[in-house]
Amino acid sequence: MSATTDAPDALSVSEVNRRARQTLERDLGELWVEGELSGVSRPSSGHLYFTLKDDQAQLRCALFRTRARFVAAPMRDGDRVRVRGRLSIFEPRGDYQLIAEAVQAAGVGELLAAFEALKARLAAEGVFANARPLPCPPRHLLVLTSPTGAAIRDVLAVLAARWPLAQITLIPVPVQGCEAAPAMIAALGLLNRQAALDPTRDAILITRGGGSLEDLWAFNDEHLARAIFHSRLPVMSAVGHEVDVTLADFAADARAPTPSAAAEQLVPDQRELARRLDALSTRLARAAERHLEREGQRLDHLRARLRHPGEVLSGRREALTRLQGRLARSLAGCLAAERRHQQQLAARLSAHAPARRLTEAGERLSRAQARLHAAMPRQLAGHRQQLVAAARELQAVSPLAVLGRGYAILEDERGQVVRRAADTAPSQALTARLGEGRLVLEVTRQLPE
Predict the structure, then answer these.
(1) Which of 74, 193, 389, 394 is found 20 to 30 A from 31 (Cα to Cα)?
(2) How far is CA 209 from the centre of its chain?
(3) Same domain, yes or no, for 29 and 68?
(4) For the residues 66-90, what does the mean pLDDT come to?
(5) φ/ψ (deg, to 5) at 48
């Protein structure tokens, strides 16, 4: 077997370039490159081609038309710039190049440092803590942007396509330069004051198109971020493109990467709602149809079980006749049993005649009365003798008998018996209890024993 047969399958040139491009884009991703511009070319397509170089190497770059229109730098040969983009390969020619997304003057690094420092300070103060939900759709959307910029056209176009019922009010403000931040702060204050009078105004959108870091710097103003944070109305910020981030974005309640994306987030899509409504209508119709089918089957089943009223009444009449017969037989049996029981009671009553029993009871009562009349005098005499003896014994031990012999009992004001002269005091009133009556006495002095 020849050596060519054992060799592995060879890759095509296009497959090699494709794999190399995929590896570059996957492994390196987006990055910043700083260097000197060289060979800047502006063909009629609107794309921008140039080379970044330093003293040891160079890198070919391409900035496509959709991004090139947002580049504020002059892009002249010899300028030192910073380019953000991703490495790729142009597969037809195998050219290794940087697909640029943004170009900034090299001095932008100082602005970025200032941006990061201010961002950290505001975050520590809680200025970026807003997260109120925005109404969807808002009843009255207030848009702060330039009246002539592409942002308002994109927003209005998306809103008209997705939700034509949206009420929009444009608040024209400058979105670039030293006057932009104060104008937006004043507009926010005015809109919040007006919202107290018009509660339908329920959301604010601050937006503008893309640009360089210097162009967007007004949206990094510290006072604007604080005004957004203190706004009573919820605020959405959509400044620049996806890669552009400002302090206004962090301070707002919600952020969108682009003006168009902001409009998409703020309102639902009427076409999607219509599709959902159609789907729900179809589901409802099918559910109603299935329900009617089930109820129809249930009705057929009940109709099959339903009997004619005459047949039902006939059956009820027969059952009633049977019950009446059972009732008559039961009553006859009960009456016969009660009649037998009455006869038995009458026989027992005649065997125990009340008149005879009353005669016997009268005789017993007469004898008991005679015994009672004979016993009562004897009982009374005995009790009278016992009473006289007890009276004599009581008289013998009674204090009153002692008082009758000339003695007296002295009592103080509290009714206590005085037993010793020492228990009295001069001028003290005492009561003397005699055999008959009482005397009130006064102590004049105590005599020694």
Answers:
(1) 74
(2) 41
(3) yes
(4) 80
(5) -125, 125
Domain with 277 in it: 272-299
Residues 37 and 148 in one domain: no
E strands, 288-395, where? none
Q: State both tokens at 119.
A: 């961002």
Burial class (CB in 10 A: 0-12, 13-18, 19+), 381: exposed
What torsion, rounded to 10 degrees, do the Cα atoms 49, 55, 57, 60 define?
0
Q: Is the pLDDT of residue 325 over 50?
A: yes
In the structure, what pLDDT confidence band is assigned to residue 2 with cuts at 50, 70 and 90? very low
The CATH number linked to 19 is 2.40.50.140
Round to whole Å and give the CA distance between 47 and 99.
Answer: 11
Task: Using alpha carbons, list the distances in angstroms from residue 284 to 272, 277, 278, 291.
Answer: 18, 10, 10, 10
- Is-above-0.85 flag for pTM? no
- Please report the pLDDT score of residue 197 as a whole number: 87
Instruction: Report whether 253 contacts 132 (CB < 8 A).
Output: yes
Task: Name which of 140, 137, 134, 141 is nearest 162 in CA terms.
Answer: 137
DSSP state of 33: E
User: Residues 155, 207: contact at Cβ < 8 Å?
Assistant: yes
Do the strands 429-433 and 80-90 form a parallel or antiparallel pair, or are they unpaired?
A: unpaired
Residue whose pair of structure tokens reads 């076409």 in the numeric block: 271
Question: SS3 breakdown of the chain: % helix, strand, coil, rounded to 5?
Answer: 50, 20, 30
How far apart CA 91 and CA 51 sit, in angstroms, is: 19
Please give the average per-residue pLDDT across 224-244, as a whole number: 91
DSSP code for 368: H
Residue 282, token pair as written in the block: 């179809």
Q: Is 418 helix (H, G, I), strand (E, B) or coil?
A: coil
How many domains, in total, are found in the chain? 4
The number of beta carbons lying within 10 Å of the beta carbon of residue 229 is 19
* Domain termination site, one of 268, 286, 314: 268
166 and 233 share one domain: yes
